[in-house]
Design goal:
Length: 265
């Protein structure tokens, strides 16, 4: 397979910054050869992209990076998560597979067919998932070599109302949800995030989404790698679903910048 656009971009920051802003779900781009395996018509696919895309999160990360004293590094997925979802583990059993949303999705946010159920995920995993995972692993390794630690801050968003694919959608849906990992999220990083986002309203913990992304090579093994997921409720900064950004975006970028600054110290 060939791609019409680079699968990802690793955007350099300051040599002394340990922070990597990871933006995995902000893009809508789907290469033509991948689109051929999707059963939705063009109109239905656009609707699905409206629901599944973390719209404007790349811009939030960009604006935050632009305003801090020590520029963080940014790792940005250039392709839609409907190509592959780089934050799934394709070689392990996980609950999202039960709703057709493993590394290669076969179902939509409304649990309708996206690809045939017998789709072989291996070509997409080989072409897109594994190079992404290797590059992200290398990015973390570079920060460890340069400054002795790495702080991965995932930038996501989620809808104000739960979508049918959500397995834990019945819980609280605060303006900002902080996803944590028992091994990789130290108390001081969580406290910094709560402080940075406090003025935006309630900051929740692991609801409706939990966990934080760490490359598998380091996951559960290396405490020098810290991680936190920032999930922003979309109605706080944009018109749902898939609409333009609004006046809330600069406030969120400022809050994220405050978190980056605290995590850099």
């Amino acid at each position: 397979m060939t791609s019409a656009a680079p699968s990802f971009a690793f955007l350099p920051g300051a040599a002394g910054s340990p922070v990597i802003l990871h933006v995995p779900h902000s893009a809508r781009e789907i290469p033509a050869e991948v689109r051929a395996g999707i059963v939705l018509d063009d109109e239905a696919l656009e609707r699905e992209l409206d629901h599944i895309t973390d719209s404007h999160t790349a811009r939030i990360a960009q604006e935050a990076a632009r305003t801090v004293p020590l520029t963080p590094w940014r790792f940005v997925n250039r392709l839609s998560r409907l190509v592959v979802d780089p934050e799934r583990f394709p070689d392990e059993r996980e609950e999202m597979r039960a709703v057709g949303m493993g590394a290669v999705y076969t179902r939509t946010t409304h649990r309708e067919p996206l690809r045939p159920d017998d789709t072989d995920p291996d070509p997409l995993v080989a072409r897109y998932f594994r190079p992404y995972a290797r590059a992200m692993t290398d990015a973390v390794a570079e920060r460890l070599a340069a400054v002795g630690r790495a702080v991965v801050i995932d930038v996501h968003s989620y809808p104000a109302e739960p979508l049918p694919y959500e397995l834990h959608g019945e819980g609280p849906r605060p303006p900002v949800c902080l996803g944590t990992d028992a091994f990789h999220t130290p108390p001081e990083l969580l406290a910094a995030a709560r402080g940075a986002f406090a003025e935006l309203g309630e900051t929740g913990l692991d609801s409706p989404f939990a966990g934080a992304y760490v490359p598998l090579e380091y996951y559960g093994k290396d405490p020098r790698v810290s991680a936190l997921m920032v999930e922003i409720r979309r109605d706080t900064y944009m018109t749902e679903p898939g609409g333009p950004a609004g006046p809330g975006l600069p406030r969120l970028a400022s809050a994220l910048a405050a978190l980056v600054t605290a995590a850099t110290a």
